[in-house]
Each structure stands twice: as structure tokens, then as C-alpha cells.
């Protein structure tokens, strides 16, 4: 939804990042058989994703390159030392990381954060060279699932209060738990969100992606993130389905979507991930992220949004419970505090959220309070607990992070009488980043006073 418009600048060319490593299973160029002609009858679907046939780069989506008539993830070698492509020039690893192969280190991640901050244009609040900066987000390893399972006790441990960070976007979601788990624990975080992300292909089919892999390889990466979070001692919330391209800010064509094209695909993905949630003993499972907000952001009437959301949950949650025995979490985008027409009776927990780009802190806090007051009422009505599921602020010139978070936390303390916890966005989210700001001690103190 519109709260991540600036992150879109970082993520819109997901595979266009020139530092993205080739897929491990790809055949080396030197041994790959020569191809002299494009396939005569390329399949019609899926189109434009890795492995699908192509004639030129234009046939591939998301910055993929057409290699040997197949859409492929570009490697650093496609650009470095060659002719500059797309105006990006010759790219070099960050800071002291003298080779791309050495970018898989905490030191290089620290350099990335420096680059992101230094390249933020204060006038436009956008990255000066986003594609180059994003290259450093593609390098952490997936890890072998069987090896990761060793030493990890797969059990469900429910904290009394959920204290968490929301790190959407596959690179951020991977890196935060891979490199910054110690910092998160020191902050007081006890729960981590794992967020499978999807793109939409040319045939309106949803495609699981980690922005370097798709399909089963992407699924393995998500599972490895679950295991890393478990290994680090976090409770896990698996939010199965962030369909960011369905938000207007997630695509070039702003024509409102037809939810009929995607609703049953979302249902299918929700049921698939339910089995994963059960196998790896995820504490909370959300069948989809902000189902109602995909419609709200695409100009659907509020009454229809409420009705379709209720029908979706009524149809999908019973099916999910056939595969998953843990607690089901229903996360909504609040719709400017218009979520009271949604029933959460089939959920074990629901979450609301609100964030700001340029509102003054007092106005922001008032809207935070409004959404909490409604959540308190809905929680009492449906007999289901809630959390503040997504609190965020975009760095701007209106006020400091300290002023914003001071106001928001005060609104939370004064109004969230029965809340089960709070989630902020996010620790390494670029223009939403709390790490290293004056908001850090404020969140740490809030988490401390919440108790265990």
C-alpha cells in the first residue's frame, strides 16, 4: 500500500540489480550448449519469469535478461568490466568489500546501510542510484534446510506480548534475520515476521519470488528464513502472501485491478503455506497480508470490501485449519480506521496498522490513536485479541524520528488498553529505517515496559 512508495524505488527493478548472483543450479556459460534459434513454439504461460522463453530482454519482467532465449537472472559479470548498460555504468562492491563474492558479510551489510543513507536525496526522499545500492541486498546465502534444522527445536512458544519488526521486501526480510538478529534481540524484539512475496506475471498469475529466485527455490529460501528465526530464538509470524504489485504504487499501470483475477490464487497459496507453517511449528500464520487493502487501494467501495473480506476469511480459514494447528493471525491495513465492518471471529489474533510520510507528529499520533480505539472496540465485540501490527514513519523534513515516535508511542500507551503487542517498520528498511535513529531507545523502552 502507499506506505511503501519509497521502498518501491528500491525494489521496483528487483532483478535489475547488477550484483545479483546467478542461480546456483544454472549451467555455467562455458559448458552450456550453443543455441542458434529461439524455441519455435514457446509456451504461453508463465511468461517473463526465470526459465521462460524469450527473444529479447523486453520479453522478460522485472529486469531479467534474455540469455540463450531464456529469461535469466543477470549476474555481476553481465555488467562489470563490460559495456555500461541502462546508464548504470561499471558497478563496484561497497566500501572495503573488494569483490562481489565477499559481499556476504555483516561488514558489507553495514556498508550498504551507509550507502543507502548517504544517497538519500533530502529534497525528493528518493535514492540517487537505487539500483546500485540494491545490489548489495542479494548476497546472503539461502542455507541448506536440513543443516539448518539441526539444533533447532521445532516447537511453538507464544510470548505474552508480541514485540516485533515488520521487514517487507524479500532482501530485507532475509537480511534482518540473517545479520541483525542480535541487534533485534537487544532492542527487545521477541517475534519475527517471515513474509513470502509475490510478483504478477504477464498472464496475471501470481509468482512467488525472493527477488533472486522463484518457485521451489524461493520457497526453500523462505523456509530457511523461518529456521534462522527459530534458531535465533524468535517466535515466528508467517504472513503468507504479500502481493505488493496489486497496490497502485506497486505497478506502473494505475488502472484498478479486478480482485476476481487474484482472490482464488491467494486462497491456493494460503493453503499451500499452511502446511509449511505446521511443519516448522510457526507460532502465528496469516493466510494473506492485508487482503482488504488491495481492494481499498484500488477504489473498491467500503461496503464491498467488508463483505468480500468476510467471505474470504470464512472460506479460507476453515481450510487452513485442516493443515495448521497453530494460531491464525488476520492482518489488516486499517483503511484509515474503517475496518470495523470486518469480522475477526474466525481469527485467533488480528493486527492493524498506520504510518505516515509527511504528516506532522501530532496529526500522525491522532490517527494512530483513532485506529487503536477502533481496534479496542472490535476486539471486545469479536472476543479476539489484537496487536498494533505495523507502525511506520518515512524519513522526511517535517520532524525528527524522535518527535514522530514519541507522539505515536504516547498514543499507543494512552489508548491500547488490551493490545497484545506492537510491530514497527522497520530495522533496516531504508527510508523507514529505525536503526541508528533517536527512535531506537524509545522503542526499546516501550518493549521493556511491555514485559515478557
How would you characterize the overall build of this protein?
By secondary structure, this protein is an alpha/beta fold. The protein has helices spanning 5-11, 106-118, 130-134, 145-149, 170-179, 181-187, 215-231, 263-279, 291-296, 302-321, 361-382, 401-415, 439-450; strands at residues 65-67, 70-72, 120-121, 126-127, 162-165, 191-194, 197-200, 206-209, 235-239, 284-286, 327-331, 349-356, 386-393, 421-425. It folds into two domains: 8-25 and 43-137, no CATH class; 147-450, TIM Barrel (Alpha-Beta Barrel). The protein has 13 helices and 14 strands. The strands form four sheets. It has an eight-stranded parallel beta barrel with strand order 5-6-9-10-11-12-13-14, surrounded by five helices. A two-stranded antiparallel sheet has the order 1-2. It is globular.
Give a quick set of tags describing it.
452 residues, alpha/beta, TIM Barrel, eight-stranded parallel beta barrel, two-stranded antiparallel sheet, 13 helices, 35% helix, disordered N terminus
The arrangement of helices and strands along the chain is HEEHEEHHEHHEEEHEHEHHEEHEHEH
CATH superfamily of the largest domain: Glycosidases
Largest sheet: 8 strands, parallel, barrel
Strand order of the largest sheet: 5-6-9-10-11-12-13-14
Assign the structural class, choosing from mainly alpha, mainly beta, alpha/beta, alpha+beta, or little secondary structure.
alpha/beta
Helical percent range?
25-40%
Low-confidence segments, given as residue ranges, are: 1-45, 76-104, 119-139
First-to-last CA distance: 31 Å
Class of the largest domain in CATH? Alpha Beta
Number of strands: 14
Number of domains: 2
Radius of gyration from CA coordinates = 22 Å
Amino acid at each position: 500500500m502507499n506506505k511503501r512508495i519509497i521502498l518501491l524505488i528500491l525494489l521496483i527493478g528487483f532483478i535489475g540489480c547488477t550484483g545479483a548472483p546467478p542461480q546456483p543450479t544454472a549451467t555455467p556459460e562455458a559448458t552450456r550448449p550453443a543455441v542458434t534459434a529461439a524455441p519455435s513454439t514457446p509456451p504461453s504461460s508463465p511468461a517473463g519469469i526465470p526459465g521462460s522463453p524469450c527473444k529479447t530482454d523486453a520479453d522478460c519482467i522485472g529486469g531479467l535478461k534474455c540469455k540463450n532465449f531464456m529469461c535469466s537472472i543477470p549476474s555481476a559479470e553481465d555488467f562489470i568490466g563490460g559495456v555500461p548498460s541502462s546508464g548504470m555504468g561499471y558497478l563496484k562492491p561497497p566500501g572495503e568489500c573488494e569483490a562481489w563474492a565477499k559481499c556476504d558479510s555483516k561488514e558489507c551489510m553495514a556498508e550498504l546501510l551507509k550507502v543507502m543513507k548517504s544517497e538519500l536525496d533530502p529534497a525528493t526522499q528518493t535514492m540517487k542510484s537505487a539500483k546500485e545500492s540494491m545490489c548489495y541486498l542479494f548476497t546472503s546465502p539461502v542455507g541448506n534446510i536440513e543443516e539448518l534444522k539441526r539444533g533447532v527445536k521445532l516447537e511453538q512458544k507464544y510470548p505474552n506480548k508480541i514485540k516485533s519488526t515488520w521487514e517487507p521486501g524479500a532482501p530485507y526480510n532475509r537480511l534482518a534475520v540473517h545479520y541483525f538478529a542480535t541487534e533485534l534481540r537487544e532492542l527487545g524484539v521477541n517475534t519475527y515476521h517471515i513474509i513470502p512475496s509475490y510478483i504478477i506475471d504477464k498472464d496475471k498469475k501470481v509468482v512467488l519470488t525472493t527477488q533472486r529466485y522463484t518457485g521451489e527455490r524461493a520457497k526453500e529460501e523462505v523456509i530457511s528464513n523461518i529456521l534462522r528465526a527459530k534458531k535465533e530464538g524468535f517466535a515466528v509470524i508467517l504472513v503468507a502472501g504479500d502481493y505488493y504489485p496489486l497496490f497502485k504504487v506497486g505497478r506502473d499501470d494505475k488502472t484498478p485491478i479486478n480482485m476476481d483475477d487474484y482472490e482464488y490464487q491467494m486462497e491456493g497459496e494460503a493453503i499451500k503455506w499452511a502446511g509449511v507453517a505446521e511443519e516448522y511449528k510457526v507460532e502465528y500464520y496469516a493466510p494473506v497480508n492485508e487482503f482488504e487493502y488491495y481492494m481499498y487501494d484500488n477504489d473498491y467501495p467500503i461496503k464491498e470490501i467488508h463483505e468480500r473480506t468476510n467471505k474470504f476469511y470464512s472460506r479460507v480459514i476453515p481450510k487452513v485449519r485442516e493443515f495448521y494447528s497453530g494460531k491464525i493471525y488476520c492482518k489488516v491495513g486499517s483503511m484509515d480506521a474503517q475496518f470495523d465492518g470486518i469480522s475477526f471471529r474466525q481469527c485467533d489474533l488480528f493486527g492493524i496498522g498506520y504510518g505516515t510520510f509527511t504528516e506532522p507528529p501530532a496529526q500522525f499520533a491522532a490517527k494512530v490513536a483513532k485506529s487503536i480505539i477502533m481496534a479496542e472496540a472490535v476486539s471486545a465485540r469479536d472476543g479476539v485479541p489484537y496487536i498494533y501490527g505495523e507502525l511506520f514513519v518515512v524519513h522526511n523534513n517535517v520532524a525528527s524520528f524522535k518527535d514522530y515516535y514519541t507522539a505515536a508511542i504516547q498514543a499507543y500507551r494512552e489508548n491500547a488498553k488490551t493490545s497484545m503487542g506492537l510491530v514497527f517498520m522497520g530495522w533496516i528498511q531504508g527510508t523507514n529505517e529505525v536503526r541508528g535513529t533517536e527512535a531506537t531507545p524509545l522503542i526499546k523502552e516501550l518493549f521493556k515496559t511491555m514485559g515478557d
